[in-house]
Amino acid sequence: MNEKAWVYLNGEYIRLKDAKISILDRGFLYGDGLFETLRAYGGRILKASRHLERLYRSASQIHLDIGIDKESLQSTLEELLNRNQLSEAILRITVSRGVSEHGIQLNPTAPTLSIFARQANPLSTEKYEQGVGILISEGTAHRLPHVDPAIKSCNFLPQILLQEKARKDEAFDLISTDPEGRICEGTTTNVFFVKDNILKTPSLSPYLLPGITRQLVLEIAERAGIQSIESEMRSEQALDADEAFLVNTGIEILPVVTINHRLIGEGSPGPLTRRLREEYLKIVEDPDLSC
């Protein structure tokens, strides 16, 4: 990122080069914090209210006071886009419990709230036209004990290591299964499959983050009259799928054409995947649908 870019830190708009956070911050020391990643199209932030609702719900669950109300935070996001003159952008909100006394006990402290925005860099057209490959890794799904899986915690080491495993095997992402062999999610994605024109995605579980884009795709399918099912799924069903795709805020809907180096369907993005992507792009282009 440009060192002269504007960022938001604890109530102030400052240049990135001037943004400093204490080494005693609990986010740095313990990963004690939350984050949200949002996408702006044409200067409008897609489903901002849903992202902020999840952030504030998660903060309440971990006894964290963000220190600013949702309306003010959304205004801050929009102001940051304006200051950086960004239209197509990725925004990242990070909030930690702030600086406190030594030890892990909770002490009333001011949170550290930071936001940055950067130019969105979409994946290549080739990836959307030709699709990508993924891996399914048995028994690698992870969870934080006593933490709701819907919380986007700053504890991200398992995903980092699994993503590196995928990279070394020249795969776009790695999909984990739980100890019982049920498919869960990717390192930063949710996954969908198509079989006999029915859209399928793993049902919610303690190992699966219910992504904003995941829910949006299910809503798009319902409006389009596409039958969809949330259910337990295993590797054999994934390998037998006619189509597959990944979703998240940044990649939108990304076709998958190989799983564990085996072709899925005809080995090219399928018709239902293409249709859902077309409907998704209509939403991001329509201000009445994107809020």
UniProtKB/TrEMBL annotation:
InterPro entries reported in the protein's UniProt record: Aminotrans_IV, Aminotrans_IV_CS, Aminotransferase-like, BCAT-like_C, BCAT-like_N, Class-IV_PLP-Dep_Aminotrnsfr
Top-level lineage group: Bacteria
Pathway annotation from the record: Amino-acid biosynthesis; L-isoleucine biosynthesis; L-isoleucine from 2-oxobutanoate: step 4/4; Amino-acid biosynthesis; L-leucine biosynthesis; L-leucine from 3-methyl-2-oxobutanoate: step 4/4; Amino-acid biosynthesis; L-valine biosynthesis; L-valine from pyruvate: step 4/4
One annotated GO biological process: amino acid biosynthetic process
Reactions mediated catalytically: L-isoleucine + 2-oxoglutarate = (S)-3-methyl-2-oxopentanoate + L-glutamate; L-leucine + 2-oxoglutarate = 4-methyl-2-oxopentanoate + L-glutamate; L-valine + 2-oxoglutarate = 3-methyl-2-oxobutanoate + L-glutamate
Enzyme Commission designation: 2.6.1.42
Top-level EC class as recorded in UniProt: transferase
Presence of keyword Ribonucleoprotein: no
SUPFAM superfamilies found in the cross-reference section: D-aminoacid aminotransferase-like PLP-dependent enzymes (SSF56752)
GO molecular function: branched-chain-amino-acid transaminase activity
GO CC terms: cytosol
UniProt keyword list: Pyridoxal phosphate
Family note: Belongs to the class-IV pyridoxal-phosphate-dependent aminotransferase family.
PANTHER family: AMINO-ACID AMINOTRANSFERASE, AMINODEOXYCHORISMATE LYASE
Name under which the protein is recorded: branched-chain-amino-acid transaminase
Organism: Candidatus Nitrohelix vancouverensis
